[in-house]
Amino acid sequence: MVSPPLGYALMLLAVPLSAIILFSFWTQNFMDVDTTFTLNNYREIITEPIYFALLKRSLFVSGTVTCVTVLLAFPVAYFVSFHVPAHRKSLWLFLITIPFWTSYLIRVFLWKVILGYNGVVNTGLINLGIIDEPLTFILYNINAVIITLAHAFAPFAILPIFVALEKIDRSLLEASQDLGESKVSTFFRVTLPLSMPGLVAAVLIVFIPTIGDYVTPELMGGAGGKLIANMIQTQFLALNNAPLGAALAIVAMICVTAVSLLFVFLNRRYLRGRS
Q1: Which residues have CB under 8 Å from 77's CB, separation 6+?
Q2: How far apart are CA 29 and CA 129, in angstroms?
């Protein structure tokens, strides 16, 4: 019974990944692919400063988006789990998932309208007399990319945190307060450690996809907001240099894996210190 899902996983995950790894050790001259083993693509990535700069910017943007999204998602999930009556939780979850009803691309374009030079934000602030000229730092830069990605991935962070909070035995919270702990100390000593599985899931679910997103940086980032995914797309589609694009993808995956494992390791140390 394991063979069908195993074959499915190999076909859709292992085979494409193996092809990307193999391609990264080849070279390409327009339409001609040289299958001779070489490390030139990785040497170029190491020696060219632009690739390191894009990778560093991508990690910064993904990390910032993850922190903002999780910090904003936790209060929402906590409120729905602990303060919304049981018969209304389904309605709240339904409202949280409303952004999934529309295309991701449409949501990006909507933020472009909201943050634009003559968009909703600038027009509203000018009409209120708060500013005299439209703000230019909220579009076509990293700020716009972070805002758009944080909104797009908010439901992905809320739902796993909510599930983890729902699994917490409420009697443990009552016991903590019966033993003299305040609500604040109960949250930090009981609720937060028990909700860590949901927090870890939310962090990984947001961090890993955002570093590979190229639509939002392409539409919202401008020249100064491009990320490593945009360079990978350019290598594959515009410059006809798939091996270099594959090598960039492998390097990006290695960095994401390293950061994710480091986060999981630090989280385990935190939980051990609390136990």
Answers
A1: 158, 159, 161, 162, 165, 198
A2: 57
244 in a structural domain: yes
Nearest to 219 by CA among 206, 205, 233, 203: 233
28 belongs to a structural domain: no
In a domain, 20, yes or no: no
Residue 264 CB-half CA count within 13 A: 11
| Spatial CA neighbour of 99 closest among 145, 159, 163 | 159
SS (H, E, C) 32-50: EEECCCCCHHHHHHHHCHH
**CA-closest candidate to residue 16, choices 257, 208, 178, 253:** 253
CB 52 within 8 A of CB 185: no
Q: What is the number of domains present in the chain?
A: 1
Q: Is residue 123 part of a domain?
A: yes
Express each pLDDT in 147-177 by its tens digit. Answer: 999 999 999 999 999 999 999 998 998 898 8
pLDDT digits (tens, 9 = 90+) for 40-92: 999 999 999 999 999 999 999 999 999 999 999 999 999 999 999 999 999 99
Place of tokens 């949280």: 96
Radius of gyration of the chain (CA): 23
Report in angstroms the alpha-carbon separations of 41 from 6, 170, 177.
32, 55, 59
Instruction: Return d(Cα 204, Cα 13) in angstroms, integer.
Output: 18
Give the domain extent around 64: 50-274
What are phi and psi for residue 224, nearest 5 degrees? Answer: -95, 5
CATH of the domain at 143: 1.10.3720.10
Count the neighbouring beta carbons within 10 Å of the beta carbon of residue 213: 23
